[in-house]
Design brief:
Helix content of chain A: over 70%
Structural class of chain B: alpha/beta
Structural class of chain A: mainly alpha
Radius of gyration of chain B: 18 Å
Oligomer: heterotrimer
Helix content of chain B: 25-40%
Number of domains of chain B: 1
Chains: A mainly alpha (about 240), B alpha/beta (about 230), C mainly alpha (about 230)
Number of domains of chain A: 1
CATH superfamily of chain B: P-loop containing nucleotide triphosphate hydrolases
CATH topology of chain B: Rossmann fold
Strand order of the largest sheet of chain B: 6-7-8-3-9-10
Number of strands of chain A: 0
CATH class of chain B: Alpha Beta
Strand content of chain A: under 5%
């Protein structure tokens, strides 16, 4: 582009730079992780909250050996779901409050790259919290069956589905007037299948069910993950445009 | 460089922009003036591809919106009254992040250069949350020019700055952001706009009510022109 | 001012008539079921309201998709109407079901797949309204509503399938019942007449209410528009 007012030393280039989908996604993930590593606001809030929820459950349900057998999966998933909304809300509010969301939207990248970037960092936060809470729970209640690979697999699948819907809905809820309270109200009824299937599958595994016996909830979990990642991918544009 | 034809923007039933015809030649610095609620920010957000026009055509840097918005965004730098920076990252990390979002290769040299240009080289390793408002705004300009855009949009860049910080920002705007680029700026600070811009357009009740070049002012000044345009 | 269409008035009258006939068929015409007695008679309206509630839920999701593709506000009005009307019908379904469940299952409520899914669906609807209430811009409200209606429409069937993995005692009158179902029965010819007429009647009433609700939305919009014209 030729302009008359250009000075000799400065002329904007006419080459169009655009990052690949993958690079843009990873840039967002690294940015979120770097910021969180420094402030640790989000992770510490999620962790402390998780511990408090488990403490309350401990006394509310009197988690003796017999009761624990049947409710451990439920206690864990309730904890993760509550801590998850805390993280999701915060992670999106950081983008919204200082207009950084506009900064992301101004970059020449596909809007769905922004969705995947935020979803992957949210998932990373959730997995970090789980990686700390699960061993702690195992230690407190001497529940070593938590460490079987299939149990951890169920935790991963459940977290993926929950975060996929949660990231999409948090992008909506931060744009509303009632944003502080709205996310759990929007998220929980839609996430019922993923939470219940996860409880069913992980509860089965803790009670010594074989892999074949938990196949049904596991399949539904995978179906949910696939459908909602695809839908979130398709509709994210509508959530951030004006 | 920028051209809108019969641009209309509605929010529900409210019509904010009612047929804006606006064009900017390469290298021009246009100040978009007007009272609150005239639709300046809405108009700028449409040019920035953040908001979709309801009707009409928009072309920026040779690409039309909203269909070629990715190409437009690659050639566009935006400075708004919010810095669009992450408080828990350092100045350098913020610029690195945006450099990657714009697909720049070997951006380390570019970042150093940008930091020097906005006079924050000595603070590159400091967190944004420790920066004063004026420094954040200077870095925001650095962020906006990291990919060397052809078109710059400023949306009330002086909001919340004191006299000294505004003056410093003036210098940076002039030397870094405006140099050799095409600029559209919204402002209600007439004095500052008068110093910077080469053309003044007045947006009122959703249309461009008047337009004048700096060279047109001989006996009158911007304030008279502005008042006259609003009363007509 | 547009007056009420004659076809709508006719449909109002037809709705009242079919509701009357359906009531007669359910309460008088259909024979008393041997085991459960008269309480079984709520079954006709229970399934009738459940049927239109379900139709409304699917319609809301479909019109959500239609809105996102076309951006035509008429789909948004259709979606809101579908959600509102079927919220009411689902609520009636749940209440009627409870009345029946008390003598049949000896409990007002049980966490059966159908009951739970109905309850979760009501919660999704309530969340839907809360979401819409928190947004000023009508276009954004419509977009977010459409996205949420779509998510709800996709998750409800999976909810049903997941809860079926736990257990069920809900009878399946149409199709195959599970071995554990309690309170099932076989329909006689007269019961079938009452049953299918109830389905028909509630479909008519549903269409009538949808029409009223959509008309109300358009009138509301017109009022807003007139107010805006006056204030200008």
């Amino acid at each position: 582009m030729k302009t008359e007012t250009n000075t000799a030393e400065h002329r904007p280039s006419s080459i169009i730079y655009r990052p690949s989908f993958f690079k843009a996604t990873m840039a967002i993930v690294q940015k979120d992780l770097a910021a969180e590593l420094r402030s640790r606001e989000l992770l510490s809030a999620m962790l402390v909250f998780s511990m408090l929820v488990i403490l309350i459950f401990n006394f509310a349900l009197e988690l003796d050996v017999k009761v624990r057998q049947s409710v451990t999966a439920g206690v864990l998933w309730t904890t993760f779901a509550f801590a998850g909304t805390l993280g999701l809300n915060r992670s999106m509010a950081v983008e919204k409050d200082r207009g950084c969301m506009d900064g992301l939207l101004l970059a020449p990248v596909d809007r769905s790259a922004i969705f995947f970037g935020k979803a992957i960092s949210n998932l990373a936060f959730m997995l970090i919290v789980e990686a700390i809470v699960l061993p702690l729970y195992a230690l407190l209640y001497n529940e070593t069956r938590i460490f079987q690979p299939s149990f951890l697999g169920v935790i991963l699948l459940g977290s993926i589905g929950y975060i996929a819907v949660g990231t999409l809905l948090s992008a909506m809820s931060v744009q509303t007037r009632t944003r502080d309270v709205l996310l759990p109200i929007l998220l929980f009824p839609v996430a019922v299948p993923v939470l219940l299937a996860s409880v069913k599958a992980s509860g089965g595994l803790l009670n010594g069910a074989t892999f074949a016996e938990i196949l049904a909830p596991l399949n539904l979990l995978i179906v949910y993950d696939v459908i909602f990642i695809a839908v979130a991918f398709m509709v994210f544009d509508f959530v951030v445009e004006e | 460089m920028i051209e809108t034809k019969k641009l209309v923007k509605r929010f529900g039933l409210k019509t904010i922009l009612r047929g804006v015809d606006f064009s900017v030649e390469p290298g021009e610095f246009v100040a978009l003036l007007g009272p609150n609620g005239a639709g300046k920010t809405t108009f700028l957000r449409i040019l920035a591809s953040l908001s979709r026009p309801s009707l009409g055509s928009v072309k920026v840097a040779g690409y039309s919106l909203p269909n070629e918005s990715a190409q437009v965004r690659a050639k566009l730098g935006v400075v708004s009254h919010m810095p669009l920076l992450y408080p828990d990252l350092t100045a350098e990390e913020n610029l690195q992040f945006y450099a990657r979002m714009y697909g720049l290769m070997d951006y380390q040299l570019r970042i150093t250069k940008v930091l020097e240009m906005v006079g924050l080289e000595h603070r590159r390793k400091d967190l944004i949350r420790t920066f004063s408002r004026g420094m954040q705004q200077r870095l925001a300009i650095g962020r906006a020019v990291i990919h060397d855009p052809e078109v710059m949009l400023f949306d009330e860049p002086y909001t919340g700055l004191d006299q000294d910080a505004s003056e410093m920002l003036d210098g940076v705007l002039r030397s870094v952001a405006a140099e050799g680029r095409t600029v559209v700026m919204t402002s209600h600070d007439l004095a500052r706009a008068e110093d910077l811009a080469t053309r003044f357009d007045i947006l009122s009740r959703g249309v461009i009510a008047a337009s004048a070049k700096r060279t047109d002012f001989k006996n009158t000044n911007l304030l008279d022109f502005y008042k006259k345009a609003l009363t007509d | 001012m547009q007056s009420k269409p004659i076809a709508l008035t006719i449909l109002d009258i037809v709705s009242i008539i079919v509701l009357g006939v359906a009531t007669y068929l359910a309460l008088v015409f259909a024979p008393t079921e041997l085991v459960m007695g008269d309480v079984q008679r709520v079954f006709y309206f229970h399934v009738g309201t459940a049927w239109v509630g379900l139709v409304g839920f699917v319609l809301a999701a479909v019109s959500g998709i239609a809105y996102l593709i076309t951006k035509n506000m008429k789909w948004d009005r259709f979606e809101v109407a579908a959600v509102e009307v079927s919220t009411m019908f689902f609520f009636i379904t749940i209440v009627l079901g409870s009345i029946w469940a008390r003598p049949a299952w000896n409990t007002w409520w049980t966490w059966d797949p159908r009951l739970t899914t109905a309850a979760v669906t009501e919660l999704i609807y309530i969340a839907y309204f809360m979401l819409r209430q928190g947004i000023e811009d009508p276009d954004k409200r419509a977009r977010f509503g459409a996205v949420y209606a779509l998510l709800g429409g996709l998750s409800a069937p999976i909810t049903f399938m997941v809860i079926r993995l736990f257990r069920t005692i809900h009878p399946v009158v149409i199709g195959n019942a599970s071995a554990e179902a309690q309170g099932g029965f076989d329909m006689t010819a007269d019961m079938r007449t009452a049953f299918f007429f109830a389905l028909f009647a509630f479909t008519v009433i549903f269409i009538d209410m949808m029409w009223h609700r959509i008309r109300l939305s358009s009138l509301q919009e017109k009022v807003e528009e007139l107010k805006l014209n006056v204030s200008m």
